Amino acid sequence: MSEKIVIANSDFKPHFIAYFDILGYKQHVAKGRAVEIANKIASSIEGIWDNFDMRKYGGDVSAPEDEAKLKVFLDNFIICSERDWHAVLQNAVRVQMYLALNDVLVRGSLCYGDLFFSNEFLCGDGIVLAHEIESQTAIYPRVIVDKPFIDEAKKQIDAHVERLRSKSPQNQSDFVKDYPTVIYGLGDSMVCFLVG
C-alpha cells in the first residue's frame, strides 16, 4: 500500500508558473490522430530535455527552491520554480519553440501563485489562476503574462542589481548601472515574442 499524502498550508509555496494548453488536442483525438499528436508531444519533450537543463537556466541548482520543474499531463504543460523566474521564462520559450517545430500550437500563461508540487500531486491557487488566464484570456495561440509574474521578477532583478552595486560601489561599470535596462529590454523582447 502506498504512503498517504498529507498536505499542510505550509506546503503551498509561491511559484513562478508557465502553463500551456495544446490547441486542437480534442479534435486530433476525435479524428483518430491520438497517436500522431502523442508522438509530436513526445518528440517535443525529448527535444526540450536533450537540449537544455530544465532545472535552472544558466547553471547549477543551489537549493531545491531554485529548481525549475516540468510536468506534462493530457494536453497541458506546466513549468514552475519557487525562485527562478528566468528559468521559467526561458524554458517556456523553448517549450513553445519545440512544440511549434512539431506543428503543435499552444496558448498559455505566465503567472505567480501558490503551488504544492510533488511527483504525484499538483494543486494550488497558482494552477487555477494559470488555467483561468490560459482558457479565458489567451484564447488564441499566445501566452499572456500576468502582472504579478512581472512584479515578482522585477523585485528579484532589483535585489540582484543592488547586490552587484554593493560589491563594487567605487568601480561601477556602465553595465552595472544599466543592468536593469538591459534585463527589462531582454524581458520585453521575450514578452513580445510570447504574446506577439
How would you characterize this protein structure?
With 196 residues, this protein is α+β, with helices and mostly antiparallel strands. The chain has a domain of 137 residues: 2-Layer Sandwich (Alpha-Beta Plaits). Helices cover 49% and strands 19% of the residues. The protein contains six helices and six strands. Strands 1, 2, 3, 4, 5 and 6 form a six-stranded mixed sheet that branches. A hairpin with a 4-residue loop joins strand 4 and strand 5. Helix 2 packs across helix 3. The longest helix is centred in the last third of the chain and has 22 residues. The radius of gyration is 18 Å and the shape is globular. The C terminus is likely disordered.
CATH architecture of the domain at 10-146: 2-Layer Sandwich
* Span of the ends, CA to CA: 49 Å
Which residues form runs of ≥5 with pLDDT under 50? 56-60, 174-196
Which strand-content bin applies to the residues?
15-25%
Helix and strand pattern: EHHEEHEEHEHH
**How would the global form be characterised?**
globular
Q: CATH top level of the domain at 10-146? A: Alpha Beta
Question: Could you give a short account of the major beta sheet?
Answer: 6 strands, mixed
Whole-angstrom Rg: 18 Å
Give the class from helix and strand content and strand pairing. alpha+beta
How many beta-strand elements?
A: 6
Helicity level, as a percent range?
40-55%
The CATH homologous superfamily of the domain at 10-146: Nucleotide cyclase, GGDEF domain
**What is the residue-averaged pLDDT?**
78
CATH topology of the domain at 10-146: Alpha-Beta Plaits
- Number of DSSP helices? 6
